[in-house]
Amino acid sequence: MKLIPIVLMLQLTIALAGIFPAGAFPDQKDTRLNDLFSILQSSDDPILLQETETRIWEIWHESGRKEIDILMEEASEATQLGKLEYAESIYSRIVDVVPEFSEGWNRRATVRYYQKDYDSSLEDIKQTLILEPRHFGATWGLGMIFGLNRNFPAAIAAFERLLELKPNSQGIKQRIELLRQEMIKGAV
After folding, report:
1. Which tens digit of pLDDT belongs to each residue from 113-147?
2. How far apart are the first and last CA of the chain?
3. For a tag site, which of 11, 63, 66, 110 has the least CB within 10 Å?
């Protein structure tokens, strides 16, 4: 299994950010995102944090194209019903039609994760993070897959990045500590 080290992935994301300026794509260009991320990083109010995260997800789901939004809803329903292959095919159509729509990639990564197709999920996560480096959902998925593959340093780095994006993320500090303990056990 070929996994891209987290440092390399983050370097690639940063390098590509110079080529593709932040906010260049439909779901990432919304100027409200900067203020919402500022709230995520500075507030301790759990209600405000939940409302802010919900609003970010809503913005990320706005493709700017009605037909894509309809497909996103159809794929989401298919996922909820456990029709994962069908959902994946819809998300694949979405990323083919609108490759600059980060949430299409993220949703397909999630379906592939549910199917335990971790390599393909990682590729979609990489594309999501190129398009939206602040995507905390994709960053969480990255950490989970690296952890499942026992790449503990990369998993820890991903979860530490998640804490940069969302310092009040529930359970992440404990997850990092568990990963460090697993890494120590594996080294013995």
Report:
1. 999 999 999 999 999 999 999 999 999 999 999 99
2. 24
3. 66
Tell me which amino acid residue 3 is.
Answer: L
Over the stretch 35-60, which tens digit does the pLDDT of each residue have?
A: 999 999 999 999 999 999 999 999 99
In a domain, 130, yes or no: yes
In a domain, 24, yes or no: no
Quote the number of domains for the chain. Answer: 1
CATH assignment at residue 114: 1.25.40.10
| Identity at 184, one-letter amino acid code | I
How many other β-carbons are positioned within 10 Å of the β-carbon of residue 16? Answer: 13
